[in-house]
Amino acid sequence: MGDTLEFNEIYQEVKGSWNDGRLRFSKQNVVYKSSKTGKVDNIPAGELNLAQWRRVCLGHGIKLATSTGHVYKYDGFRDTDFEKISEFFKANYKVELTEKDLCVKGWNWGTAKFSGPLLSFDINDSTAFEIPLSSVSQCATGKNEVTLEFHQNDDAEVSLMEVRFYVPPGQADEGQDPVEAFAQNVLSKADVIQATGDAVCIFKELQCLTPRGRYDIRIYPTFLHLHGKTFDYKIPYTTVLRLFLLPHKDQRQMFFVISLDPPIKQGQTRYHFLILLFSKEEDISLTLNMSEEDVERRFEGKLSKNMSGSLYEMVSRVMKALVNRKITVPGNFQGHSGAQCITCSYKASSGLLYPLERGFIYVHKPPVHLRFEEISCVNFARGTTTTRSFDFEIETKQGNQYTFSSIEREEYGKLFDFVNAKKLNIKNRGFKEKKGMKGNNDEYSDSDDDQHDAYLERMKAEGKIREEGNDSDESDAESDESFNPGEEDDDIAEEYDSNASESNSSEGGDDSEEDNRKKKKAKKAKVVKERKERKPRKEKKQKDTGGPKRPMSAYMLWLNSSRERIKSENPGISVTEISKKAGEMWRQLGKDEKEEWESKAGEAKKQYDKAKKEYNESGGGSSAASKKDSKKKGGKKEEKKRKSAGGDKDRERGGGNDSFKSREFIETSEESSSDSDRKSKSKSKKKKKESEDEEEEVLSTPPSSEESD
User: Nearest to residue 249, comparing CAs of 366, 365, 327, 344?
Assistant: First the structure.
């Protein structure tokens, strides 16, 4: 007998549906982990006082009861498991695993017994069925009957809505009505959402992202009440699965996320997460509506009657104490900007992806939480819109795929290292695993190449496949090349080649085919080189540096005189802040003060116009223009020479046949047909130069209020 016993595919009933998981018996405790939610039930060995082995719908099951009043039921065992489990319980827990038969007679007359959180209906000392009182949502009484309504679970294919018990009239103890006594026993353990007293504390007007709106949160001992202007939600603490406290990327806000299972409902909408947004700067003083003795007895030092601090700290602290669950915060991951999250998009909405120590959580629309245990593999993919971003895809073992897109390229290395350190399977790591090795997970997780670029490796591999395909289908490739309009000159060159007969006579040999391909490549390179040489180079615009300098505007004259004063009044100010400050000061000047500088600017403008006129009359600027015109004329002559040379060459090749046109002839004809386009371009260049002169004048004017802002 070993120290532990482990069983897979063990089922637990949760509000009408069966969730599978793993059950482990150890000397210290009994641990059950749900595969669906990841929730862990931990039962200390010292608290076990009852263990029953029963025949149930999924084979055999075990019912465990603790000294604290909790009952746990697990189904899915085989008949052969009874002996080893019984021996393990005797040796380690000092508890005997007894066999218990259930009544299957189908009678509807029996005895109702309340034992802890269970209501059992017994027939002749044999249990017919049991009802977990935590699944009861409402209890109504009639004259002689009690009606129990149940919480509904969306995952259950068939749901039990209600059960009615007929209670015969009779005298109860101390003169109490038997119907009321039955109802009180149910309500004492039921998960009935009703305010039976004052709230422990109230948080006013909290900003909630999911469901969206402003809500008052009233904290009751057993449930959470969200009270808004339109909707009310009552959330039992038993449905809270996890708590997350996540810092926003701007470092000024905090997300507090509450994971719910089953979710809260509004019509056909299901909210699996409750997301609150807080400002770090918002503080609060909180007083609990309980005596100090009750606070100490109930929360054991986790809370105190009077508390103060940040609002998000108070809400998270109260929720942690009432729900009795740990708060998950981001781990050691840091992105490119130093934040603990990554900006991305999911389903066309932008949000934040937080890599945690045991999973990923995306906030916020819609929220997604993925545990590492349920992830099959991840994939890094190229962005669809731009090369400056990439997509991060996550595939789960259930076959679902989540794509987080538009992640900045700088985050790739950080995210890749994080995924690699957590030993998650990377789907597109290299091409060898994808091509030949069937699901070799060890290779995925053991790679230590930090500089590995999965995209580059995949592109290289696809390029090799294309090359292999081209080599195997050389004849098809050559026949396709003959229809390429960009390569007619290659065929012409072969036709007039002096060694054409020799090359044709040796077509059967592999060496001759290789030589032909090399010749084709050389000729292509030659044509490309000639084409590049024929392209006219763009000439740089020559500025006339000999002319008079443009005058300053009134704002620039004032700024030059005031710059040193602004620096002295604001030590350590930057250049951009000086300009911003100057713009604000200029706008605050009165008309009388501005007139002084505007008159100076007007005098400077008159002097500039006079100097410009004298400069133009003396022939200034004509030399640069004449050089430019001469270059244009020379370029036109060279263009005519190229056209005539191309035409002669075509006539030599084609023997005077006008129906045959070489590539050079086609290109020169296209150039001649675009003379009108060149004329229009030269006109647009002149207009562009005039607009640039106007822009220089505009730049010298003071900024408007909108521009400075």
Answer: 344
Model confidence over 407-443: pLDDT tens digits? 988 888 889 999 989 888 888 764 333 333 333 333 3
Backbone angles phi, psi at 431, to 5 degrees: -110, -20
CB atoms within 10 A of CB 191: 20
Q: How far is CA 631 from CA 68, 263, 366, 537, in A?
A: 100, 78, 65, 12
pTM over 0.85? The answer is no
Alpha helices (runs of H) in 399-453, residue ranges in sequence order = 412-421, 432-435, 441-446
Tokens matching residue 37: 């939610």
Grouping H, G, I as helix, E, B as strand and the rest as coil, residue 373 is helix
Tell whether the torsion through CA atoms of 541, 545, 547 and 549 is positive or negative.
Answer: positive
Tell me the C-alpha distance between 219 and 230, whole Å: 19
- Per-residue model confidence as pLDDT tens digits over 308-337: 889 999 999 999 888 888 888 888 888 888
Q: How far apart are CA 256 and CA 279, in angstroms?
A: 11
Where does 96-169 show beta strands of DSSP type E? 97-100, 111-115, 118-123, 126-132, 136-141, 145-150, 162-166
Token pair for 436: 């030949």
- Dist. CA 14–CA 37, nearest whole Å: 11
Q: DSSP state, 298? A: H
The reply to whether omega before 548 is within 30° of 0 (cis) is no
> Of 270, 179, 187, 178, whose CA–CA distance to 233 is shortest?
270
Integer Cα distance of 126 and 143 in angstroms: 28
Q: Measured between alpha carbons, how far is 321 from 200 in angstroms, rounded to an integer?
A: 12
Nearby residues of 103 by Cβ (< 8 Å), 6 or more positions away: 122, 123, 124, 126, 127, 128
Contacts of residue 519, defined as CB under 8 A and 6 or more positions apart, other chains included, come to: none
